[in-house]
Fold this sequence. Notes:
Number of domains: 1
Strand content: under 5%
Oligomer: single chain
Distance between the termini: 25 Å
Structural class: mainly alpha
Radius of gyration: 19 Å
Largest sheet: none
Helix content: over 70%
Amino acid sequence: MRRPMIRSLLLTIAVIVVLWLIIATVLSSSLADNAYLRWAIRVAGVLATPVLTWLLFPSITTGILGFYAESIMAAVEHRHYPEQSPPPETRWGDQIRSLLTLMGLGILLNIAVLPLYLFFPGANWVLFILMNGYLFGRSFFDLVMLRRLDWKTTRRMWPQYRGAFFLMGALLAIFWPR
């Protein structure tokens, strides 16, 4: 299991570097004619770039890890559930659909609540845990369930298990490095 984890970490770092450069370029390039306004926008960009990049890190990491999850889950099943029948052929379309949906939702939600993060100290931590708890929990639920079930069945089962998976995701978000 170390190889997929190391690969996902390295790929996440590469994506974060690219994301950092994109955010820095977008925030620092200004169409303002006023030199002072242009300078203020660039300074804000320099300060906002690490914050935006770090807020997007959980969504990106989860999305990338999802591409390696199959080998991790196969190793866990082989070791801890040897009597389990092999899963059906992977439904890559469902897996990718889930990963892209949740990764996109995570990025949009993190950007949407950015003003709350900045202006409500203390509440931002609770918001981070709640939002990323849901996203982590839902991602892990989909990864596991889509290994053996189709998209529609997985969607129908989510309400039954969302509490446990949300709690697991919230615990992960609490211990997420800051």
